[in-house]
Amino acid sequence: MEITKFVHSCLLIEFNNKKILIDPGNFTFDSKSLDIDILKGLDYLIVTHEHPDHMHIPFIKMIIARYPNSVLITNQSSQEILKREGVVATNTTPDFIESSSVAHEKVFGVEVPENTLFKINKILTHPGDSLHILSTTPVLALPVQAPWCSLTQSVELAVSLKPDTVLPIHDWHWSDLAREIFYKRLEGYFAKEGIKFIGLKTGEKIKI
Length: 208
What we know:
This protein is α/β, with parallel strands linked by helices. It has helices at residues 26-31, 57-66, 76-84, 151-161, 176-192, and strands at residues 2-5, 11-15, 18-22, 44-46, 71-73, 97-101, 116-120, 124-126, 139-143, 165-169, 196-197, 205-207.
């Protein structure tokens, strides 16, 4: 499996001649970090929940217009929003994608939306905006910074789940310098726990 990060929580997953893009949000779109031409042959587009940093509707429309044979998978709440925008989505997954409803973390002043955790090919877990993770695959995409969590909370969760590898997501809020500093600290801390931490840079591809 090959994994490429495109800002914040957007990951491109490639394996067995399949391409899956997760959470193309507004931060990814605004950064112009993802050239959709590289998505040639896109099979699935996955959205964990309706917040714009995970589901930027203009970006999704652009991707689907380019790759109309791709299947958009999300939960019922996001489906309804997309339907009003003329975008067709489903909550039915192929056998190599598992989905489960997990609570979005509380955010002050707003209602929390429906949030879905996805496990890809029994290798990668992407929880959206949730730390309510009861189990993980060998690779955990871990939210590390948000109005709804602290880095310490996230790290303690990952240590308790014991994945082989942690990939940081949901880190747009950090400056480049903060990201560099924290990635270095996280790499050392997780190594002591027997967990590999890979601080993916934007556009960087790794093979798992």
